[in-house]
Amino acid sequence: AYLTVSIEPLPPVVVGDAVTLKCNFKTDGKMREIVWYRVTDGGTIKQKIFTFDAMFSTNFSQMENYRKREDLVYQSTVRLPEVRISDNGPYECHVGIYDRATREKVVLASGNVFLNVMAPPTSISVLAADTPAPFSRYQAQNFTLVCVVSGGKPAPLVYFKRDGEPIEATPLPEPPAGAGSWAPRNLLHRDLDDTKVPKSLAAEGEMGAGQPWPTEEPPRGLAAEQDSVTETIPETVVSREFPRWVHVAEPIYYFRHTHAPVSDGTVEARATLTWTLNPQIDNEALFSCEVKHPALSMPMQSEVTLVAPKGPKITMTPTRARVGDTVRILVQGFQNEVFPEPLFTWTRVGSRLLDGSAEHDGKELVLERVPAELNGSMYRCTAQNPLGSTDTHTRLIVFENPNIPRGPEDSNGSLTGHSGFRLVLALTLTVILELT
């Protein structure tokens, strides 16, 4: 007797699809059994998922047979109604027949197939690295967007766009380590605010001002740690929104892609986009992270708009603070959507905070048991992210607390403390005058 077994190959399937495994075999012997196995742990474990025993069963509902050249051709099928990621892996079909020469001898043969189960990504998000971070007026700094894609199998293709246009980025296998050291150019046209000059005029102004180009052009792209520059800057320049280190040329983007396997069989992909931030042109720029995956009919995306904070909204509780109360001053939001997350710094104008510190970080400032001396004190909240900063002020008004006795007088209204001291001093002066 002879026996040949083959399993029809399967294309990749998506989680949730129905899959039918088909085992074809041809023989001139009599059927003994059919067993389907799911193979796990690299082939060390075989789990039975279907068994047909011809000796004890005459149910051929899953079998199709017909005569062809005096041979029997069979097909055994196993259907998985909703495949899961855990169904991914190899499957085997084992067939046994009785030898035609003797009924005691069994001939065995098997075939195998690999079921490749794909899963589309379940989540995508874009965040900024190293946030919250301060805004720097006079030093170029790197900025990195991170796109995190989870739940996909296999690893997806991730790429960035700016304002709907794909970004051509330089692959970066290792984290950026800086691009050397260079000094910023001298400030030109000090009486002008560079933010009000078009880029074309700004470029012409640099070329036409008779200033020679630096002998060593600062590198475009990743910002480096800049050397300190000794330069006298007029007071009017301090209020400039953006200094001259802003590059006129298009930025160079650096791209890095990594992925890590997850215990459930999926992959977490992380893509980073790094460039030298230019607040003058990057403010209100729309960046999107897009993902292509064979299990997706169309790309999925997540987008963010880089925006500097504007118009913080501050609340104070209680609204009518009394001596001894605990006062909380909180930033509830802004007049706009801000990204990335701002850094909040609280200071007291003209003095230190109640706990003696010069400043406090966080969205909320808590003043424990406020004394009467804080009445009228001004508090400044500075909200900043790498695109810009803004200040807002609030004044604390502290009212008297009727539950706390007043210091200068007791409950009977008699003079105590400093008033008693002034009375004794007046009597002493009177005695001295009479003696003289």
Question: Can you tell me about this structure?
Answer:
This protein is mostly beta strands. It folds into three domains: 3-118, Immunoglobulins (Immunoglobulin-like); 123-171 and 252-306, Immunoglobulin-like, CATH 2.60.40.10; 313-399, Immunoglobulins (Immunoglobulin-like, Sandwich). Helices cover 8% and strands 41% of the residues. It has a five-stranded mixed beta sheet, with no helix packed on it. It has a four-stranded antiparallel beta sheet with strand order 1-3-7-6, with no helix packed on it. The chain is elongated. The model is unreliable at 58-71, 176-221, 223-240 and 409-436 (pLDDT under 50). This is Immunoglobulin superfamily member 21.
List keywords for this structure.
41% strand, 3 domains, five-stranded mixed beta sheet, Immunoglobulin-like, elongated, mainly beta, 28 strands, 436 residues, glycoprotein, disulfide bond, membrane, 8% helix, 4 helices, lipoprotein
